[in-house]
Amino acid sequence: MPDKIAITFDEKNKPTTKGGTFYVTINGEKTSKRYRWCIYKKGNGNPFINEIKEDKKPLEPMKFGSFGKDGGTFIIKIYDAEKVKGKENSELSKFSEEASLEIEIKKEEEKPTTRHNIKPEILEVHLIKKGTGSITKVSYQDTLIAIAKTQGLEGKKITFNLYERDEKDRTHVKDFLAEVDRYGMARVEIPLLSNKKVFQFLANQKAPENGEGNKHEFFVTASFGLNKNMITKDSNEVQAHLKKNIKNAYFVDANGKKVNKIQVGDSVRVCIESEDMIGVLVRYTILEKDVIKDDVIWLRKLVINDDVHTDSEITITENLFKKGIDFFGIDSDSERQNYYIKVEAYAGKKESSTFELSFESVVYDVGVSPVKVMVDDGKKKEEENKKQSTIVTYHIYHDGRIEKHIPKKIAEEFKQKYKYVYHDEKGNEHEVCIAEWHKVKIWEKGSRKIGDTKTGGIWETRVVDGKTRYYKLGKRESELIKVPFPISYVKNNVIIKLADNTTREYINPLAFASLLGAIAMCGYEDFSFNGSTSKDGTGAPSVTHINGISLDFRYLRKDKLIKSLHINTNPNMLDVERQEKFIDALCLFGYSSFYSYYINLNNKSNFILKNSTHITDHHHHLHIRKEGYNPKYKEIKL
What pTM, to 2 d.p., does this model score? Predict the structure, then answer.
């Protein structure tokens, strides 16, 4: 007697317009066997939900998120997963279903909403870091997200008040307004970088007195109404870390241009580049390099007021020049002198000791800038600039063009590296990153079927995660670069950020240029990369990621969180507008086709993103296809 296979659900939790949970039973017992599930609305032959549950745990149910608020009659069918593997929806009619179930979903009743008896209240407040990494530890390059859960405040504006807490009290930093949505949620992003001067000055001024070191605790309160003390709620604390680093010091002219040679009578300024040092007292000394003892030419104390601080003008007078002359004649510095800058940072107002990250009495690493006086030299600096220019560079233009500039000579340390530079619409250049590359074999195709290896050619086998795949070897070589995570470039309104969510960190160098261009055009901060290919270029166990041209990305969410989104069960969270803008940007840089997934969105079944084809198991990521990739690209030999 054949087994009786049936689809059932819990009578206590019957399916509604908001979804339902279903089980498969064989002879009355729940089973964990894998099936392909399809739901059809009666009168419509196309399934609007189509799912294969991979690696199901025993007795795990199938959950469907929404049947649409209008309800109706639905037919659920299950097929043997192995028999219909790789088949499109249109082909399912050729197969017999294992079981089916017809259910009636009642139309959702619209209930009037009354607010007169709901007390306006802020229920919860949270402060988190945007992006990946530790939620409670941030740097001033990060963005915080303040979130409030409320009731009775829909459509109203609330104020997030940001505070810094120390051992004695709390100090108000800044306020941020946010509107409460229809779900009672309010959300605001607080980019620490855009408020950097305020935060750093506050932290650096307080730190020496209160012993806070480089760690500073921030939290928010959320308030509503004129009397903010009436409705207020505190969040958790987030710890911000000051890196505190003097990165460089050099001379510039009146126009801010670096100089490496000057004469007596010239005027220069000292420029100090630092990180997380705003509000810190420093002393810089201009010294003349000597054989026995360096001579002090100029000494000045100042408070850093920006990441790139340019001090007041200094004129190299004869009296200053004479300070560097050696009266003992050991070195010939009466004709020319070598100047350099030494920078020291002090703990608060104390001049007795210098400090580094822990505010202890340890001297900082010194930024040094050599300057030749009265000599038309500067060869070392010129050689350094020349060396930096001798690297193969991909220039990515905002209009979709990509140029690979190949210099006549490539510096030894750059022979296995490529530089990527983005050109914005204003003509500004942005050096995004440098990536290492290596040569690999080109693969003609990948396959899951061993039978394909009988068609001729040289095939190689890869076994990854217990899955065996076969790859046909091509006749040429190609190149792959390793994506230099983390990518977080922000300057002059250009944002290029990419979160790492993959072990397939290798990509074709030209495809990487296209990707950076598309990300720059969008300027989103929540891109999450699911990878391209493996180091050998196969991308195993995938068979569609050979040679590192195809790319996978998580879907973009409306809440802009960097986390997974399954659009089959949570379609309303998909940010269609931003997702399709990203698709447009990718098309501008050479891509043309994508794999996605049918969803039920806004009461429309079988919605799919533009330029996309439905394919099984793509409900959690967008696949950017290699087929048709044709960027506007040319190589230029310099």
Answer: 0.45
